[in-house]
Every structure is written in C-alpha cells, then in structure tokens.
Automatic annotation (TrEMBL):
Residues 189-353 form the Heterokaryon incompatibility domain. It comes from Neurospora tetraspora. It comes from the Eukaryota. This is HET-domain-containing protein.
C-alpha cells in the first residue's frame, strides 16, 4: 500500500542539557565509566540534597528518592551522604555484572567498612553512542518515541551484519495508489503484525468485490485506528510502503489466500521492519505510543551529562559521558515480561510474523520495544541486549529456540480456524528447512526428530478446548493423529528428553499430501510407516483417583491387572474405548517403558490411530518380552 499521501507523527526537536548543582557537577565522568580507582563519593546532607532537587538538580532529584523509601532515613539531620559503586561491573549494563549505586551515611546505624546496614540501591548505566545523542531524559518528562526508534533502525542498519544478510524478493505483493514502475530492486516496505479481534472490530478488508476499488484508492479515514497509526509511524520513519494482511490478501478467494499464506516467510522475512501492535486486542485500539515509560516501568530515571574538558576547550555537541540513573536496579528479564505480556502473543498467526521479521518494533503497554537478530531491548535501556535463551547459539530464528520450543509456544496460542493450524506455521517451517537439511516435514514434525518426538503430550488448561479431531460435524481433514497439530490443546515435548531411544524403531516412510500447493501447509492426508514396532494389546481402565481434573489420566490394564497409566489426547475417546482394539507402542525406556496408545484400524490397510501416551511400569516389563518387531502405519 502506498502511504506517501498519508499523515505522519511529528517529532519535537529539543536538546537541553542536564542541570546539576555544584556538588553533583563536580563528579568526574571517570567515576561512572569505572576508569577511576575511587569507588566512593562524598555528596551532601539529605536536607541539602532535597533543597538542590527543588532548585532543579536532576541527580539530587533522583538520589533523594532513596531515603524516602525508608522511614528510618527520612530525617534531614543526617551527616554527609556517600555514594559507592561496585569496583567491578559492566558500566553499560550489558552483562549480568551489577551496575548498582549504594547510598550510605545514616549516623543512627553502625556502618561497617565492608557491610552496609539497610543500604539503598540505585541502578545506573552508561549511555553509549548513538543513544547518547538523544534528548536527555528527565524525571516526570515524557520520552519521545520516534527519535528512539530512528536510532534503533540506524544502529541496526549500520552495525548489525546478521540483520543485513537478507536478500530482496520480487514475489511480495505491494498494493499502491497509483501506477508505479520500479527500476532495479523492489522497494523497501514495512509489515504490520496485529490482532484482528472479533468480527465486529475488524477493519476493512480486500475481497473480490472490493479489489478494483482497493487497487485505485484506500481512503485513510476508512481504516481502523491500528492501520492509521501504523501508516503515520511508517511515514514518520520515511517509509512509503506498508503490507497489511487483510488488505494485501483477497480474503474470500481461497486460491489467492492459500498462495499468499504460503509466502509469509518471504513477506515478513524481507520487510525492512515490522510494526507490532503488541498490547492491542483488536484493530480499534491502535499502536500505543506510550510516552510516560518512567511510570509504566515503575522505575523513574534521569540522564546526566558529564563533560571532561580542559581550560579553553568548549563542550562538544554530545557529552563526554552520559549516565542513566534509575530509582531502583533494573532487572535483567525486563524485556521478556514486556514482550510476552500482550494480546498479540496469544494469536497463533503472529508467532511467525515476529520470528521471521528481521526487525520488530513492538508497541507494548510499557513503551516501545526493539527486537532484531542481534539486539532485544526496551525503551528503559535501549542499548542492552536481553537474551531469553542464554548460551543458545544454534537455535532457529531470532529467539534461538528449538523447533520443539517453537511448537510448544505456538500450540498454546489461539486460532480462529483449526484448519489453519499448519498454514499459520508454514512460514516458520519453510524457513527452518535450511536447518533440517535432508529431513522430511509433514504435519508440523521433522523426520529427524522421530520417533521420539511422537511422544508429545497435551497440557492441562483452565478450560478444556473442543477436540480438534475429525468428527461427524467437522468433515474437513485436520492433521494425522500422530501429529501434535491434530489436537486443540497446548502440547509439550518435555517428556521426550529423558530415556534411551529405541534404535531399532525406525521411520521407513513419512508422507503428506498437501491440500494446496504448499508442502508446509494444510494436508489432505498424512501417514507414517515405522519398522521394528513392539506392540502389546491393552485395555484402558477407569480414571486414576486424584489425577488432575483437566486431564484424562486412566489406568492401563493387561489381563485385569493395572500395569501402567494412560493419558488420552481427547476426553471424547473415553466412551468409545470398549469398542476399539487398543494397544501400546514402545518408544523409549527410562526406568519405566514409555510410548503411544494406539487404536488398531478395522481393516488391515487402515493403519493405527494415536489416542494418547502411556507408560508401562518397569516391574511389568515381561509383558513386552513376547512381542515381535513389526512394521506398522500410523495415520
């Protein structure tokens, strides 16, 4: 969509310096950078500090907040207050080394040379370039979001090699307002990730009936608040083209929808950046540009500029050193709480939008967030990289997660149509194929992870979802029963990690027939052929007393004896168990014997259908000793 004629946000230009009292202005920049051996500073009495704060000293203003947190320290008749920093720390706050100031000096407590009784801690961090060229933050002032986002983009573009390895694609559909001829590579464009919300909250869409009209012009006033905000932000960041799913895909054309859905890896992977309306539940709530991040994070901070210059030297355009001082120490996991806490992350489609985008600018309820391949940061400390998977370097996408991590995250998200289960993940699967060279992908499973990954299991929920299996009222094929995508519940693979895998149980064939042209999308059918299968006939007994109320855990019976336990994938199976021939397939061994619960088909060619997972206790291992290896087909 060409958004060149649409309005934009206007950024203010204002660069006042830091106002400091005589005592605070005498603090050398070397104290903050760690270059000074002196780790103690003598300041002034609390009463004097409060007086200077009222006169406008920014450093006194935040430091005098510390004693106000402690009733025993609010008296004004304290002796001179002292400030101490750690002798060894990371001045930029990038590592876990604590950048903490300790406030001491209360005469009513005995202060040991090495131990502070009731210490008051402040967080601090040097502000590196290019963030130090932004307007310094003051307590009580709102933060300008657009200049910060511009610095994020500039820093990533100029310094992040991993974020610049993407090639342009000519397969991206860009809707524009006029006839545009492109010479050379395709233009840069922005993508939007958002929640549609209920039908009553949907913005306008492109349909067969409106396609001609959309190709001619899309009036700005007809767009939802989220779409309008994304256009304003894009124009403010000097971007002309914006890709929005509901406008760039013909929603009532099944063929167009299927072909465009298969291109999601390209659409988001090749965009310049993605705007994510993280805290908006539907398209009417907009991209929230939270400016008061000091209140949103409940941790006020101030930027102090220090200049080290000799006689006759003038202050340069930017300070010699900028320090950001926080009312309390900043937590390392700040970005994860901000990113994960948003309605957008409850939606299944948005997982691949976030993971595939090289750069994501999220608008959370606490303020803007940045994510790219090399930096994940908040507006509190926009230069600090916060990594969820510490030490993980060989995972997939920006999060460095394993495929099983991706699936566990994805399966816990909501999806309006169960038939979209694999379609909404196809972009990630397509992009992950490079990491699974030679592996076959069917139904959300990679052949190199089998057979152990077959032993996924559902996670109890507060409310039971409707089973996603094919029923008389749902004629459409969903997924093969052995795939996690066949259930409507969140799944975990945690039970797959321990144990000794059976090396004699092998995948001979893994087949999936695509419903459309996309081999990573929806299926018409799928089958898995295993050789070396050890099967034992069992019965599924009564529910286990005291088991979790939201799971269907039952006793595994053999010749009237309880030999293990069973966890069914769907409670709806319970009343049909006595009609089916049920068996146990051994997958791996870890003290006990773990595997799948299968239903044998009526006819020999019908194969076996998964019903759940089960465990045979080790004291009953003899019931497996008479089993002969077989070749079976799972459907």
């Amino acid at each position: 969509m060409d958004i060149s004629e649409c309005p934009s946000f206007q950024a203010k230009v204002d660069r006042p310096g830091s106002k400091l009292c005589k005592i605070c202005s005498s603090i050398p920049a070397s104290f903050w950078s760690g270059k000074s051996k002196n780790i103690h500073l003598k300041l002034q009495p609390l009463e004097s500090m409060r007086f200077e704060a009222e006169r406008g000293c920014q450093l006194c203003g935040i430091l005098q907040l510390g004693p106000s947190r402690d009733a025993d320290r609010q008296s004004g008749d304290l002796e001179v207050l002292k400030m101490r920093r750690p002798p060894y720390y990371d001045p930029f706050g990038v590592t876990k080394a604590r950048s903490v100031l300790t406030f001491i000096g209360d005469t009513r407590h005995v202060i040991s040379p090495t131990v502070d009784l009731y210490p008051l801690h402040f967080g601090f961090s040097l502000v590196p370039y290019p963030w130090s060229r932004l307007k310094p933050a003051k307590m009580g002032e709102h933060v300008e979001n657009l200049p910060l986002i511009e610095v994020w983009l500039e820093n990533c573009r100029d310094n992040h090699a991993q974020c610049s390895t993407f090639s342009d694609s000519e397969d991206i559909r860009l809707v524009n307002a006029g006839e545009l001829d492109f010479d050379g590579p395709p233009p840069k464009y922005v993508t939007l990730s958002h929640c549609w919300g209920p039908p009553s909250k949907h913005s306008i869409t492109t349909t067969k009936a409106t396609l001609s009209e959309r190709m001619t012009r899309i009036p700005f006033k007809t767009l939802s608040q989220t779409f309008q905000d994304s256009i304003k932000i894009s124009r403010s960041l000097k971007q002309r083209f914006l890709w929005i799913d509901s406008l760039c895909i013909i929603q009532d054309d099944e063929d167009d929808w299927a072909s465009e859905a298969a291109l999601m890896a390209l659409v988001y992977g090749h965009s310049y950046f993605t705007l994510a309306a993280l805290s908006s539940r539907d398209s009417t709530e907009g991209c929230k540009m939270v400016a008061d991040i000091q209140s949103s994070y409940s941790n006020r901070f101030v930027d102090i500029d220090f200049y080290d210059y000799g006689p006759g030297q003038n202050k340069t355009r930017f300070p010699h050193q900028r320090v950001r001082i926080f009312e309390t120490p900043v937590r390392i996991d700040e970005i994860h709480e901000s990113v994960d806490d948003g309605p957008l992350n409850d939606r299944a489609w948005t997982l691949q939008e976030r993971e595939l985008s090289r750069r994501v600018i999220s608008f959370s309820k606490k303020g803007p967030l940045w994510e790219c391949t090399e930096l994940r940061a908040t507006s509190q400390r926009p230069w600090v990289h916060n990594e969820r998977f510490q030490g993980a370097t060989n995972g997939l996408f920006k999060s460095k997660a394993s495929w099983q991590d991706i699936v566990e995250n994805y399966s816990a998200r909501s999806l309006s149509k169960q038939s979209d289960k694999l379609v909404a993940l196809s972009g990630l699967a397509h992009a992950a194929q490079e990491s699974y060279q030679g592996a076959t992908y069917v139904g959300g499973m990679w052949s190199t992870s089998l057979p152990r990954a077959l032993r996924w299991m559902i996670v109890p929920q507060r409310s039971k979802p409707e089973p996603a299996y094919q029923t008389a009222t749902e004629p459409a094929y969903i997924e093969p029963s052995w795939s996690w995508a066949s259930v409507g519940s969140p799944v975990i693979f945690g039970t797959c990690s321990p144990g000794l895998a059976r090396h004699d149980l092998k995948v001979e064939e893994m087949v999936g027939i695509p419903k459309y042209q996309d081999p990573y999308g929806a299926l018409q059918c799928g089958a898995l052929v295993l050789s070396g299968a050890l099967l034992v006939d069992i019965d599924v007994g009564d529910p286990i007393t005291g088991s979790h109320a939201l799971t269907d855990d039952r006793r595994m019976m053999k010749d009237g004896v309880s030999v293990g336990d069973v966890s069914l994938d769907a409670p709806a199976f319970s009343h049909l168990l006595r009609q089916w021939k049920v068996c146990f397939l051994l997958i791996d061994i870890y003290s006990d014997f773990h595997g799948l619960i299968l239903r044998e088909g009526v006819n020999p060619d019908d194969g076996y259908t998964r019903l759940g997972v089960g465990t045979i206790y080790k004291r009953f291992k003899d019931i497996l000793s008479h089993c002969k290896p077989r070749t079976i087909k799972l459907v």
